[in-house]
Design brief:
There is one protein chain. By secondary structure, the chain is α+β, with helices and mostly antiparallel strands. The protein contains 45 helices and 22 strands. The protein has four domains: about 210 residues, Up-down Bundle (Multidrug efflux transporter AcrB transmembrane fold), CATH 1.20.1640; about 290 residues, no CATH class; about 200 residues, Multidrug efflux transporter AcrB transmembrane domain (Multidrug efflux transporter AcrB transmembrane fold, Up-down Bundle), CATH 1.20.1640.10; about 210 residues, no CATH class. Helix content is about 55%, strand content about 10%. The two termini are about 30 Å apart.
Length: about 1200
């Protein structure tokens, strides 16, 4: 039953493709015009393509944990929140030694000064560093003079080793013009001691001066840089208070001792720079710094959101509509200028180099990396065009050559790929590096493979001459279309199933690949047949290949007519019979009578191949199946049988006339140099030898073992140093950054649905748990990790409690209220202590009954009211905690003029839904270091999430490297889905489970060997090569399915079927592999080492491994354990001796066409002759075998219960209309 079903299915498909081919041939110019119009129109859609370089949008699992976490962050704080870091690294070059010298520090200073002076003109304004930098917010003191001074002197945040020296103050510029009254005072950071500013408040009698003093003192803004050593003590501005000033030692500072343990910024209580953050490549002796290889300065800029808000009130000064996007453009413009100017002085000969890099540089690199080189693609495609033209060009036969067909075929596939990309872009499928660097070449290769298969089949059928002038393309498509359909359908389905993987980059790639496969199939199966129809017209008009404007000479023309209309008849036992075909000429055009003439006893003939197809299955299902001859094998037999004429074969006569050579020697001389000749004469017979089979099996077992070994050597990772072009400044920076610092900020986010007020101990324990993470930078001089917002909040309340207690002791605050002498902080504490809960009820009598903080816990009843006051008044503490608590609290005004209950009310903040705990992590050199950090952090986070604290980690390590935790699993799932779909598709369409299993086995081998190659070549596993691994299934299908189908369609024993399969598909597969390689080879010239290593090398390995497996291992395996034939050949006893000789001289035909045997069936002589009628004479010279063909049923061990036949049934043809 399975075999009959298979016959029905294949005959149905072949009927469809036959009718389609005939339709395309009859209407070739219309099909070409409409097809090219549609393809060109869709190709225009490429201009709408969007290239995605945002890692968050490419490699995060769709609806996965990381995506949900980042979305929660964006929903809470908004788009563009946070800060950006611009890095300056001063690192040792080859041979560089210790950078801890005064000279190196002075050079580093010049570089930082140059950076803070950078300006960029955009949107009608000159933007400076001070316009864009991150500045801690300070409260408004309702005094224009004080607010103006504070706004000017609070500097940009710069993290630098220079902060250990007085010279670090040179990088802190006034951010605004001082009020005129204050200009007479020395308020520059190089000259001013902040203590002087505090005394100035007394002189100016500023209201609220105590609150300002508290703000400065608690932040550690007291002495500034005046008591730090000068790099050059002889400098005139070096303060006398410096420890090495001329009035003291006058000696140069000891850089090593000054940098040991880190440095402190202008706010010493908050700005404590760990040594690991500013000094790299250190060596120590007795925990004391002795030498280092690198220094690092970080310029902290505001994020797009912060910059937008800063200039929102002054947007009228700009000539652009101010928005978040324009703010981002300003930042990016300054960042690019920063990188250019700092890096312009880098010299290879220097002992140390000063290098700059920024986040925009990374984005620009990814964009540049993702952009397709048009010139390289063009050159690669030109090479493909040339090769296709040469490989299909037959120099011995100028008319029957098809070089131009190969040329336009590659152009068609190119246009189909472009149309697929354009359609994908119009559908909103975004592009990425894999789409632009891999898919154009591989998609072209997949399409060209099918084009070559169709072209070679067409060439073989044309040479056979067993077709009518209106059915050449129909026969070609009918015999080859099923194979093309099977590979295309399988690839399309596999790619669509791979799109189920929830990784956007892989999903986009798979969808684009599937779309391109569909367009390739449409182009090859509809438009290319129309090209074949045009080529048929060219040959019918005897025009030369490529130079179509020229016609052949009259002598050759007549010869070509003979060849195009007929082949010599089978010889009789006595002499060669005359050619029974006639030539008719009308309007100088040759019109042939039908060439497939069957002469019967009643003198009637049936010359319609279409009728033969229609009448093929008019009998019942048990009628014997038929197989066609393999025309390509027939052609090669003519090449290989120069003595065939002694058996009566007329090939020499025809060939000599065609080529203008009486003895046909020129054609025979050309044949041995072809790939077809190599496959037929040398390659196929060699693989039939037992010794060769054993060697091949052992070789591939060894290759598989090597692949498995290499697979275990594959490491995870994609280092930025591999993406950045070698010998560039950016590469030097990235290399130094990874080598000496590897500093990354990390954030822990706590979410809503948590009782922050009553579960403070849980929050404190959560923070404390991260002490066990060794990568977290400690507070300089201790083993403690940095504080977080709850600690700053608690410390401020403790200080407020102390101020209240002092005021209470001084009787400036009582139950009744406060006096003018009470401190502002004491008054705020008094108001908080009077609150009973979150309501507006005031109870002044309880202010001495409890503390704001008891046993390290903030009083839960007033937690959210105290939070409002802390965020509003301790702006520096809140800013440096980087808590970014949401929802945002309301403003608090510490009104002192009124003391009624209404003035005492403090508005409670809303329950916290978002808060951050910030750390810096170091010591992350390799991917395994990042993965370990991520796993350790996630373990802690998950533990506390189970205890009721919703939380998650965030930061660069998680965004870029968390994918490696699940990447292997996702790759295995994607490949498994592709393989499973391939198996099911082939099992259903072939109705042969063993054949599908054999193909999948080879696909698995190809994938394992490619993966093993990655390990042996040092190619690390990331999402980029993962795409190539998934693609290996689709590429492998092209190398395996055609061979397996040809093997199943052939008749004979396994060796004979292997031989005929090789003859049929060897050349198309080799042509497809070479053409794909020619397209990919241009990647080898990329300036990106990453493209060469991860794309070219990997694709080269894939093409080579796939070709060797498909053309070497698979044929040998099929000859040993391949599936059974779809049909078997049964010799007929009544064959004449001459025909037997003819059959012995030729190999049994494959199931490539089914046409000749169908004709044979229609006119098969009966076992009994009627009267004196002579038995049917076989006069059609194209019928090579007089044989009955019957389906096989489990006649070989690995044969399935399915067989098929090249040829549709009548009712199936009737169902197909065009």
């Amino acid at each position: 039953m399975g075999q009959r079903t298979a016959l029905r299915l294949r005959s149905k498909l072949q009927a469809i493709f036959f009718k389609l081919g005939c339709f395309c041939q009859r209407n070739c110019w219309v099909v070409l015009a409409v097809g090219f119009f549609i393809l060109i129109g869709l190709s225009v859609g490429i201009i709408t393509a969007k290239i995605e370089t945002d890692v968050e949008k490419l490699w995060m699992e769709v609806d996965g944990r990381l995506e949900k976490e980042l979305q929660y962050t964006k929903d809470s704080v908004g788009e563009g929140a946070g800060t950006t870091n611009e890095l300056i690294i001063h690192a040792a070059n080859e041979g560089g030694d210790n950078i801890l010298s005064v000279d190196s520090m002075q050079k580093h200073l010049k570089a930082v000064q140059k950076a803070v002076e950078i300006k960029v003109d955009i949107f009608g304004k000159t933007w400076s560093h001070t316009d864009l930098c991150y500045v801690p917010e300070v409260p408004s003191f309702n005094n224009s003079l004080v607010d103006g001074i504070i706004a000017a002197i609070i500097p940009c945040l710069v993290i630098s080793p220079l902060d250990c020296f007085w010279d670090g103050a040179k990088n802190l510029k006034l951010r605004a013009e001082l009020p005129s009254v204050a200009k007479v005072f020395p308020l520059e950071w190089t000259e001013s001691n902040p203590t002087f500013l505090l005394t100035l408040l007394d002189q100016l009698n500023i209201e609220g001066k105590e609150e300002i003093k508290d703000l400065f003192v608690k932040a550690g803004i007291t002495k500034g840089y005046q008591e730090k050593p000068c790099l050059d003590p002889t400098e005139p501005k070096c303060p006398s208070t410096a420890p090495n000033s001329p009035s003291k030692t006058g000696k140069a500072p000891d850089v090593k001792s000054e940098l040991n343990g880190g440095c402190k910024g202008f706010a010493t209580e908050f700005m404590q720079w760990a040594e690991e953050l500013i000094v790299g490549g250190v060596t120590k002796h007795n925990n004391t710094l002795t030498s280092a290889k690198a220094l690092q300065t970080i310029l902290v800029l505001a994020g797009p959101q912060g910059l937008y808000k800063r200039w929102a009130d002054r947007s009228q000064e700009l000539n652009v509509r101010w928005s978040l996007d324009t703010a981002k453009q300003v930042l990016e413009a300054w960042q690019r200028r920063f990188t250019e100017e700092i890096n312009e002085d880098v010299k290879e000969t220097d002992e140390f180099s000063i290098l700059a890099f920024d986040s925009t540089s990374v984005t620009d690199l990814l964009k540049e990396f993702s952009e397709t080189s048009v010139s390289r693609i063009a050159i690669g495609y030109v090479l493909m065009l040339i090769y296709a033209c040469i490989t299909l060009k037959r120099w011995c036969e100028p008319i029957r050559s098809h070089g131009a067909l190969g040329f336009v075929g590659v152009l068609l596939v190119t246009l189909s790929v472009a149309a697929g990309f354009g359609f994908s872009a119009l559908c909103g499928i975004t592009f990425n590096a894999a789409s632009t660097q891999v898919l154009p070449f591989l998609a072209l290769g997949l399409g060209v493979d099918d084009m070559f298969l169709l072209a070679h089949s067409y060439s073989s059928l044309i040479r056979g001459g067993d077709i009518r002038h209106v059915e050449e393309v129909g026969y070609c498509l009918g015999t080859t279309g099923v194979s093309v359909f099977l590979t295309s359908f399988n690839n399309m389905l596999a790619f669509f199933m791979a799109a189920l993987i929830p990784i956007p980059a892989l999903r986009y790639f798979a969808l684009q690949a599937a779309v391109v496969v569909i367009f390739n199939f449409i182009g090859v199966i509809i438009i290319f047949p129309a090209m074949l129809g045009v080529d048929v017209q060219r040959m019918r008009h005897h025009r030369y290949d490529i130079i179509c404007c020229l016609k052949s000479s009259s002598k050759n023309r007549g010869s070509e007519e003979v060849l195009s209309k007929t082949r010599s008849e089978f010889p009789s036992t006595t002499e060669r019979e005359k050619n029974q075909h006639e030539l008719e000429h009308s309007d100088n055009h040759a019109v042939s009578k039908p060439s497939n003439t069957m002469v019967t006893s009643n003198g009637k003939s049936d010359s319609s191949i279409g009728e033969v197809l229609v009448n093929e299955y008019t009998n019942n299902l048990d009628k014997q199946s038929k197989l066609s001859y393999d025309s390509e094998a027939s052609m090669m037999r003519n090449h290989l049988s120069p003595n065939a004429s002694q058996h009566g074969t007329p090939s020499s006569v025809v060939d000599s006339s065609v080529n203008g050579n009486d003895d046909g020697s020129f054609r025979y001389k050309c044949a041995p140099i072809s790939l077809q000749n190599f496959a037929t004469v040398y390659y196929g017979p060699a693989l039939q030898k037992t010794s060769v089979k054993v060697a091949v099996i052992l070789f591939f077992l060894g290759l598989l073992a090597v692949g498995i070994y290499g697979a275990f050597q594959v490491e995870d990772g994609l280092e930025l140093t591999e993406v950045v072009p070698h010998n560039s400044v950016a590469h030097k920076f990235v290399e130094a950054q990874f080598k000496y610092f590897s500093f990354y900020p990390m954030t822990l986010v706590t979410q809503d649905n948590f009782d922050y007020a009553n579960k403070q101990n849980t929050l404190l324990s959560y923070h404390e748990a991260f002490k066990q993470i060794p990568n977290v930078i400690r507070i300089p001089g201790s083993e403690e990790i940095p504080k977080f917002w709850l600690m700053y909040f608690r410390d401020w309340l403790n200080d407020a409690q102390t101020s209240f207690d002092q005021d209470w002791a001084n009787k400036t605050i009582t139950d009744a209220g406060w006096t003018e002498a009470a401190s502002s902080t004491g008054v705020m504490a008094y108001k908080l202590l009077s609150q009973t809960d979150e309501s507006d009820e005031i109870d002044r009598t309880q202010v001495r009954n409890y503390k704001l903080v008891s046993n390290g816990i903030i009083r839960p009843e007033i937690f959210y009211k105290a939070l409002t006051v802390w965020i509003d008044r301790d702006v520096l503490g809140y800013a440096f905690s980087q808590a970014d608590i949401k929802p945002k609290t309301v403003d608090f005004s510490n009104t002192r003029s009124s003391q009624d209950d209404k003035a005492m009310i403090v508005a409670a903040a809303q329950p916290i839904t978002f808060a951050k705990i910030n750390f810096n992590v170091i010591g992350l050199q390799e991917t395994k270091d990042f993965v370990k950090l991520i796993k350790d952090v996630r373990e802690i986070c998950d533990k506390y999430a189970e205890e009721g604290l919703p939380n998650y980690p965030s930061g660069v390590p998680f965004t870029f490297w968390e994918q490696y935790i699940w990447l292997r699993r996702q790759i295995i799932i994607a490949i498994s889905i592709s393989l499973a779909v391939s198996f099911l598709a082939m099992a259903v369409l072939l109705f042969n489970i063993w054949a599908a299993a054999v193909i999948v086995l080879v696909l698995v081998m190809i994938t394992v060997e490619v993966y093993g190659f990655m390990g042996l070549a040092g190619i690390k596993l990331s999402a980029v090569p993962a795409v190539t691994l998934i693609l290996s299934v689709g590429v492998g299908v092209e190398f395996t399915v055609h061979m397996c189908m040809a093997f199943m369609q052939a008749v004979g024993d396994r060796n004979q079927r292997m031989q005929k399969a090789i003859e049929h598909v060897f050349v198309p597969i080799v042509d497809g592999a070479i053409s794909t390689l020619l397209g990919v080879v241009m990647l080898a010239g990329s300036e990106f080492e990453f493209i060469v290593r991860y794309f070219f090398n990997l694709l080269l390995a894939l093409i080579c491994i796939g070709t060797f497996n498909g053309l070497l291992f698979l044929p040998v395996f099929l000859s040993l354990a391949g599936p059974g034939a779809m049909a078997t050949e049964v010799p007929t006893p009544s064959l004449s001796n001459s025909l037997a000789i003819q059959n012995q001289a030729t190999a049994p035909s494959s199931a490539g066409s089914a046409i000749n045997d169908l004709e044979l069936e229609e006119h098969e002589p009966s076992s009994e002759t009627k009267g004196n009628e002579k038995p049917l004479e076989r006069t059609n010279p194209m019928i090579k075998h007089w044989a009955q063909v019957e389906p096989t049923y489990d006649k070989e061990p690995w044969n399935s219960d399915m067989a098929t036949i090249e040829g549709p049934r009548q009712h199936e043809l009737d169902d197909v209309k065009f």
